[in-house]
Design a protein that fits this description.
Layout (H helix, E strand, L loop, with lengths): L1 H9 L4 H12 L2 H9 L3 H14 L5 H17 L7 H6 L3 H22 L3 H14 L18 H4 L6 H23 L9
Length: about 190
Amino acid sequence: AALYFSLSASKKGSRGEKLLFIFLTLTSGPMLFMFERGNNIIIALILSLIFVTFYKSDKVLVRELSLIALSAAIAIKIYPIVFCALLVREKRIKELLRTALYSILLFVVPFFIFYDGLGSIKLLLANLSNYGNITNLSTGTQLNFAKMPILPLSLFDISNDMLLRIGDAFKVVVMFAAVLASFFVDREWKA
């Protein structure tokens, strides 16, 4: 229901256009992949859509709730942090700082409520640093930017370590280019 609401609210147009948009979104490959895996990124997606839909609201409470939604999305998955570029682009620095504060609180406080505090944070950071070490270079089941250049470059005599470095560099360049491009767009994205 929350996904339906957030998709419906983020799309402008007639009821038929909204329903078609929702149908196409829910039956898209990435969405079906998330449903199949039971991935919590769906929650981050819903919260990000709420932010994008309501961050320009005239109502102060609705705007603040959209910042909290973005912060919760960032606390779940780091990727929604790119939406902070919208706040930077519009020079809404106070809202950006509140979003950062909410994000930190929503990320850190649960460690002290449900776990043993700093010890759990250190364990998480250690696990995250190990997670980034991709040793399997197959491209069959993983869909990400870091793996995109691996297949064509693996045809050449390049070491696995170098392929991984190239993949990581490619990922950073693509993400940086996307964020940078958002600052040069003259008109708003139309939903």
